[in-house]
Request: fold
Amino acid sequence: MSWVCRGFVVGLSGVFEGMGEMSSPLSIASVTSVIKSVLENGLVMHGATAVVGELAVTAMPPDRITTGADERSQLNIYLYRITPNTAWRAISSDATQPNGARAVPLSLSLDLHYLLTAYGERDYHAETLLGSAMELLHQTPVFTHETIAPTLASLAERSGSGASVFADVINSIDRITLSPEFLSMEDLTKLWSALQARFRLSATYQASVLMRAAPDVAVPSRTSRNR
Reply:
């Protein structure tokens, strides 16, 4: 049982975190950009740069990152897997208003899975970067709209890389919750083998997204259509 209240999807147990609707084709890229920006700013504030010096935070496929003799201190966040959020899909499919119209429009409901990898130019740089990033995400596992909106607005103001498109989704993402996923060594090895990249110290996270409900034309429910 669920209903729309103040633009959010609400149920008997409260707001459904982790069951976000991907209401815009830009939502996935926006989530990645917010995580990347939070890591960039947080590593500076947590003093990681004082230990490793100059560093880069990127969102690239691991096989495109330089390793070996020319390796630099770098933290990379990479979206490696997308899975359907079946719980939210079921709620979205069945929720109806008293008049028989669908209360929540059917949408693409997804969970995003990220590989967070640290690279080091010198001894202990990788451990320092990954440790700092994991501590940061442990302390602030939830990014609220107060963090998300300014981050996307800043991206929209920048030139190049098509960043201006993020202006379209500034008000669509309400909350991002990151939780660690602890893969077995076998699964982690399979992942790095599929990426065709040199293995580096890494951790995996799942991003659960709460989207602001967008106005939409009421769609008759399955029950009303069958009458």
